[in-house]
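Objective 1b: paired records.
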Amino acid sequence: MSTKTELTSIGLMSGTSLDGIDVALLRTDGVTVEHLGPTFFEPYTPPQTMRLRTLLEMAQQEGRNLMGSPVVSAVEQDFTRAHARAVQALLEQEALKPSAIDVVGFHGQTILHRPAERWTWQIGDGGLLARELGITVVNDFRSADVAAGGQGAPLVPLYHQALLRTLDPPDDDWPIAILNIGGVANVTYIGRDGTVAACDTGPGNALINDWLQRNTGALLDAGGKVAASGKVHEDRVRRAMQREYFLRSYPKSLDRNDFFLDMLDGLSLEDGAATVTALTVASVAASRDILPATPGRWLVCGGGRKNPVIMEGLQRTLQVPVDPVESVGWRGDFLEAEAFAFLAVRSMKGMPLSTPTTTGVPEPMTGGKLFALG
């Protein structure tokens, strides 16, 4: 447990979109964000993305039986060293020595997420990363929460709350929803009275990306152009929204592979993209209806905020202001990396990373595994 009040921390995030490694530095005491430092992004090469996709598919088929296999070990080692290179690139960019950094928060890559079985799996070797960098590392942020009966996700709400403390939103904005549209989308609800609630809303970019990858080889629908040229098949969206998941209250969470592209069978490239994009919007709207109160404003981060079809659909459906987080001075591409820098400090101080209303854990729960040097 750290005795320093403020720590300099680097956060790492490799999300469900499988596009690369986000690196962000900040200084925090684990309650407030004292300083937002530099950032760095290391895109995955096509072979790296393909190896991760293949591992996800294997895990979906084999489950726990895949753990400890040589295939997983090889990917995990390469994956961890790629994160080490990304941190080193940030340090070189800023002329910083490893000794200037107190801790690295290493999220890893979620391979399978099964909270109903009290099990979640993120690859990433915290000990190897600490040795490669010469910096203390915290990883495995989710396991303690899941083992205690929580969903283990989302873990960003307490960071969102800390960021919101730096703002003075007008009365009409409260309560505020912060929506992260990565591969899976999640929402944090924050009330003026301090109430925090959260859940995964449904698919974010993952199904859109998978549809484009399957049909064109492209990694994403850049600018939503393919979806914009297609027709939404509303009947298919309605059928998909009948899943029991969307009817449950928060907190709740999803695995990246909990949704499948079979809902798009027989559709053209353009109509499929339009339909699955509409599903992302519809699932966010469904989450609004289970929150403690209707948000007065939505702030959007993650790659989905760059898709105008998603953003226009959200504005039309939610009928309150929907803005990218840059509108309040936040960094939409790096919010999750920042969050794990923040959570690493909280973990070192023994502070909660999750609460009953964010993950469903029975009581506020700390977590993470510490890999200290020496």
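Objective 1b, second protein:
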Amino acid sequence: MPRRTMIEAIRDAMDVSMARDERVIVFGEDVGFFGGVFRCTQGLQAKYGKSRCFDAPISESGIVGSAIGMAAYGLKPCVEVQFADYVYPAYDQIVSEAARLRYRSNGDFTCPIVVRMPTGGGIFGGQTHSQSPEALFTHVSGLKVVVPSNPHDAKGLLIAAIEDPDPVIFLEPKRLYNGPFDGHHERPVTPWSKHELGEVADGHYTVPLGKAVIRRPGAAVTVLAYGTMVYVAEAAAEETGIDAEIIDLRTLLPLDLETIVGSVKKTGRCVIVHEATLTSGYGAELSALVQENCFYHLEAPVARVAGWDTPYPHAQEWDYFPGPARLGRALVETMEA
């Protein structure tokens, strides 16, 4: 099976989708001739022409607003916001228009758009290029929110998102763009792990939205993670020797609560890790759901490990991130509780 980086897998997903369906169009800032700041769209304009892959003005609200109008009239736009930090001007369009179009039209219109965004840290971008805003979207009814952790899932989830009749927020962890992150390292000494490429099948396939996967079976404690934090969780389990069951959520909305509840009822303990800030982060919702559904099976309080509740300077990026040491301490404390 071919081995690809996440960038190549995402590009392949758009290529496959554009080849199968002429209604699929790709646009955003610098995605046409330049191929995107991370080169995720490289070559698509040359292959499909400027009418199906093109550059947009520097206006996130304009990009998403145009995509909503195109979707209402039968197209399937897959748009790129250059960094997740730039999405805020488009937030009103996403929340007030895209998420509500099906309901407001009584089903007469749907909004099959995908909004792709590089998210999280890894490039020393600090507070203006490294934010993780997933909780802002999981609060909104009518959206789907996806965060892949590896190339295979990235391609399958993106194709599924493009084919979905409703709006999908597709968050791409920057630290995973060129290969799975080596979670053992607290700082970028060797940024990419032993598996630089992932196995990604050629052609069309999908990974279902709303379905988590168990990355590491275990019996002692359940770790809920997504994106880059899946690898941090694996590293923490290995370094502490704790028999942790690691669940890669993949889709945050809709959430695969069945897999989570089944695991926590088995282990009796739960630790949640994410890169975003702690307060009102997505981990708070996960913690509440675990408590509501697994209270009588819990042997210890649900623990959360997350980023700081403050903007962070560029130079402190790797202290801000939850690493295996910080997560490891939480695992040990949870086991001892």
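Residues 187-196 have pLDDT under 50 and may be disordered. Residues 6-20 form the longest helix (15 residues).
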